[in-house]
Hints:
Chains A, B: It holds the Pfam family Lipase_GDSL_2. By secondary structure, chain A is α/β, with parallel strands linked by helices.
Amino acid sequence: xxxxxxxxxxxxxxxxxxxxxxxxxxxxxxxxxxxxxxxxxxxxxxxxxxxxxxxxxxxxxxxxxxxxxxxxxxxxxxxxxxxxxxxxxxxxxxxxxxxxxxxxxxxxxxxxxxxxxxxxxxxxxxxxxxxxxxxxxxxxxxxxxxxxxxxxxxxxxxxxxxxxxxxxxxxxxxxxxxxxxxxxxxxxxxxxxxxxxxxxxxxxxxxxxxxxxxxxxxxxx
Amino acid sequence: xxxxxxxxxxxxxxxxxxxxxxxxxxxxxxxxxxxxxxxxxxxxxxxxxxxxxxxxxxxxxxxxxxxxxxxxxxxxxxxxxxxxxxxxxxxxxxxxxxxxxxxxxxxxxxxxxxxxxxxxxxxxxxxxxxxxxxxxxxxxxxxxxxxxxxxxxxxxxxxxxxxxxxxxxxxxxxxxxxxxxxxxxxxxxxxxxxxxxxxxxxxxxxxxxxxxxxxxxxxxx
Lengths: 221, 221
């Protein structure tokens, strides 16, 4: 049985507002024009990060480009990369945050999709360091989706080291309260994050990027 | 043929993270506990408004409560109201912002859904002033969805006056640039809005609310 999560797929414009292709084309043009040092690619968790103050404070200064598209699944990110969004650029780091929209699939399939994205980034950007974020908790209380996501995270963490110059980053630990609930102050819809929620998770991404960029600097004698 | 937009419907939790019901229950509890002067009800356009500085600056001081749930269609808002979110409260104004997620339906059906929400609010809150926002432009350039939304807006504007103490508010005019495009600076995904985009649209809602609340104040001799 083939796994849909690893088959590069374009999003069909069923409604007729062309939003996905508009975003893809804009992102492709921005990658070519801005020579980013860091690229974040993924779904709405990435896309909406730019709407919060934390983006301008922590990420923009690192010359980060936001390549998130809301609703994207691993197969859509694969299609976008195959279509050339990373052509002719040489970022020092790529952050991959994808998979929560694939969670109607078995965890093995979702993990394979995430790993396929990392492999494709490795292929088109051989020298770039690749960070793969853990999927973040969703739903107010413990629920089947969270358990499936935990499985995805475990598989990705175990298998990612087979791809050189990669690191799996657990970024969700501070989001859960002691009783296991996700606060609406961090995630009003229990999926997307407020500034407070982003600070609890993406500050860890920023910290890791700073380390990677420091190592990537050429040493002048 | 029955119109699905006017049939109160619960969102099914197909994935298993219970997000919709968690939001509904929290909103219901907040309505009972906070005695809001203003309630905004609708979809993600309403829900995500609370994530931006404009909420704390302009809306929170008016004792506004955010009853938006991402992805909601008119039939879902109808279900939530029927389930009693507005029981035992007496807000001075209700802002309705719903319909863009119904846009796979013919404009007549969507408009009927929006009007049905206004009628139900009128029924459960007989003394409250009702504001109905226009649907906001989506898609980067002119497209079939926008044209259908324009039709919805026209029908709602024409028929709303049959419901007492209501006003239709066109709030999207400042969002389109002279060439008809929606800027990614205002709406990065051409659907949801940045702080800049919200300022161009929801400042008009705030202005209207200030007027309504001033009139609603009891006059002391």
